[in-house]
Amino acid sequence: MSSPAHDAIPAVRRAYDQARAGDLHGASTLCSEALREDPLNPEAWLLRAVIAMRAGQPDEALYAARRALPVHPATAAIHALMGDAASALERPAEALQSYQSALQIDPDLGSALFGQGKALLAVQRPREALPSLERLLRARPDDFEALMLRGRAQFDLRDLGGAFDSYTRGVALEPRSADAHCNLGAVLLLMLRTEEALARFETAIALAPELAEAHHHQGQALRLSGQPERALRAFERAIALRPVYVDAFVGRGDALRELRRFSDALRSFEHARALDPACAAAQRGIGDALLDLGRPAEALAAQDAALRLGTQALTLLSRGNALRALSRFPEAIAAYDESLRLDPRNAATLCERAHALMLWDNHSGERVAEAVACYVQALEIDPNVPFVAGTLHYLQLRHGDWSVRAPAASGAEIVRAVRAGSAACAPFAFLSVSDEAAAQLRCAQVFTRRHLGATPERARPRYRHERLRLAYVSADLREHAVSYLLAGVLERHDRSRFELSAVALQPAEDSATGRRVRAAFERFIDVSAMNDRESVDLLRGLEIDIAVDLTGYTQGYRPQLLAAGLAPIQVSYLGYPGTMGASFIDYLVADDFVVPPESRAHYAEAIAYLPECFQANDDRRVIAERRFTRAELGLPDAALVLCCLNNSHKINPSMFDAWMRLLERAPQAVLWLLRHGRQVQSHLQREAANRGIDPGRLVFAERLPYPEHLARLGVADLFLDTVPFNAGATASDALWAGLPVLTCAGDAYAARMAGSLLRAVGLPELITTSLADYESLALRLAASPALLAGYRARLAANRRSAPLFDTARLTAHLEAAYLEMWRRHERGEAPSSFAVSPSAAH
User: What is this structure's pTM?
Assistant: First the structure.
């Protein structure tokens, strides 16, 4: 009589034949028949395991393989199959044990080498995974799946060159693999080859529109390329495809932050945290959004919670930002340092550390060299890190230290990059780099787009108010040049026709000027502690007719308020001497000297031309009665005192060269500069010595209260202006104090301000148009005391009669401009340039 095992053999063989033919159902039926005859048949159990894996039943496969194992303990394929089943059941540690058992039996078994590499990656041991995958690829160099796994291990180890090679080979083998294109794009993104990465993600999406990872990575690339609106749409597509995609919710939050939709960003991060409470990136994003919303203490608590989930360089960076916002500078620096210890080549962290150092420095200059070193290192890592080249250039000018040679931060390279549309320099810093009006427009447009994104078309209601409602938006309603110039205009506004509101971006200041300007407004609204949405909602409720921005891109600016739309007409005036490059500013107040008609195309705004001078001036500004002597100011009695009390960022090497040549040829002259700290003084003295000039011929003026500052100007003989960034308020101070100003007029608004003032005060002969002519005229004036005295006498005679200091006249011209803007708006006309007639003052 035959045994049950003998009877079952034909069924097992037939099952194998049917499995090879692809008939898994028939094979499974025959296996079941064999096992009914002999429940211990190892061949049947082994075949059942294989069939179950092919049928997508890993739990059944694992059970069957274990039944076959006691008879075949030294069969590597069974251990490998058990590993495959455990891996499919997402039990990587168990799978790893099975693969290791298989490889002890057969070290070259390809399926086990592949499985071991995959399992090691699943348990986050990429360094151990690489040898298995390398061994497999030596035997099978065109194994696509092995290349994909090796690329992942290399990516996790930040071996970007290796990952790039693996994924590039993978794409060549399988050009229609969306995953391969997506993975290669992710590597390119980390290599900062953003445009190439975007092309890969677009290919992946074209091949597999349902691949959520491709949309997510596309969003990251779009963020890095300064396209947050498109990035947001990409993240939302990823979320639509996978509603529990935590990383996509984090990316969405990051894009919303860049769009300044901080409350929406906070909600996105909170949703990501709800999906995965252990996600440090989500918790970090919550902290970042809270900081954006002006809640630094809560932001710090959120970052501390993120650190409890694991120490990460990015979380420490965000923690440093929160501490900096709380003015806890030593702790902020320590957080940045720890972040850099973990990720020493993070350009963003280096830049934030530099920013903290400058805030901590508080004008002493002690930490400037350290901040400069941070910016230089950041540029070495990434020469295209947004706006850092310009920041470094500006910082060197501000501190009179031109010794650092960072190619990306040279003036010529910044101008080239700006012309090409790169985010190389912020607009205010660029005013000190170039006077090219077209380049300034390009710079402002890039900055606005990067910081504000696409600004929506705002509503333009036509209100019907008894008086035109003006709102002056400013961070400088305090002891500041803007308020020194504008106070008299604010006081003289015709209250029968205009209702005045102040929108203060900084808290009210209890100072003489602060109290004076505050009293000039009927309504003083402090929005400094409000977030953007609260501020906009409040201000829209006031039904402002014309919003006048006095800040532009200077310190304390909040252009996002105007971008949201505060009024049907929005105007830039006085605070920022140039174009804002923004669609949400309708008019720029100027005159035909600072913006010649032929240059109008280089300004995003329509130009409201005032007839004589763009600049407001206060004819009530007080000059102290104190009479300074040269001796008490450190100036030689017998010297020709040439002065430039401009801020130090306006002094550049070519300007300084001209002054030193002048001192060389006028040995009786000294140069009187404003003191900006001990280090700035030391740097400028060093530069003088390098040019063969006795450093003692540079005298530095301490900062004084405004009336006393005006009084001391009388001891100087000639004010030397700067280019490409002219003196503005500083020049009118000098002229008000009776001190002639010599200027060099350039191309753009900021390079033509002093020329406009000189024309309006009746001294156009002191306007030159090249540095050569500037030097020549300065030398002539230095050599001719009589000529200089003549200009001084003319200035004294004109001071009370010329238009420059006729505050009532300027106020009438400005009001006429506002009324014309409103008339055009009422007629439904788009903003367009116009000129106010001089007769408007009568």
Answer: 0.81
